[in-house]
Amino acid sequence: QVQLVESGGGLVQAGGSLRLSCATSGTIFSIFTMGWYRQAPGKQRELVASITRGGRTNYAAFVEGRFTISRDNAKNTVYLQMNSLKPEDTAVYYCKADGIAEHYWGQGTQVTVSS
After folding, report:
1. How many Cα atoms sit within 13 Å of 84 on the Cβ side?
2. pLDDT of 12
3. Among 79, 59, 69, 73, which residue's Cα sits nearest to residue 7?
4. Is 48 exposed, middle or buried (0-12, 13-18, 19+ CB in 10 A)?
5. Is the CB of residue 106 less than 8 Å from the CB of residue 5?
6. Band (8; pLDDT cuts 50, 70, 90)
7. 2, 24 in Cβ contact below 8 A?
8. CB-side exposure of 74: number of CA atoms within 13 Å?
């Protein structure tokens, strides 16, 4: 009943940009932190960026100022604007929402950056 749906992934050339969106649906009473994670083949899932309900953001070191996370609290939607993409950014990107004592995950969207 609770669902997170990512969109916006695709194939882009190095140096290009993509904007990921994660829309939530179902009965979610309170979401505190939302974030984006990614997982490349043979790698562990890692945090890309997160944002609290109050707008405090946190980014992984590899972002290097290239990405911007934002959210619309009224819509329970989170976005990730990715610029200056590198081939190393190629991965499945997952959306995550944290409730009081539960976590919600999307099924991921593929981002592929060609060199």
Report:
1. 7
2. 98
3. 79
4. buried
5. yes
6. very high
7. yes
8. 0
Task: Supply 17's token pair.
Answer: 């940009």
Predicted confidence (pLDDT) per residue in 27-85, tens digit:
777 888 999 999 999 999 999 999 998 999 999 999 999 999 999 878 889 999 999 99
What tokens were used for 27? 């009965």
Distance between CA atoms of 47 and 21, rounded to whole angstroms?
Answer: 16
What pLDDT does 76 receive? 80
Q: Which residues contact 9 (CB under 8 A, 6 or more apart)?
A: 18, 20, 93, 109, 110, 111
> What token pair was written down for 85?
């993409």
**What single-letter amino acid sits at 35?**
G
Q: How far apart are the first and last CA of the chain?
A: 40
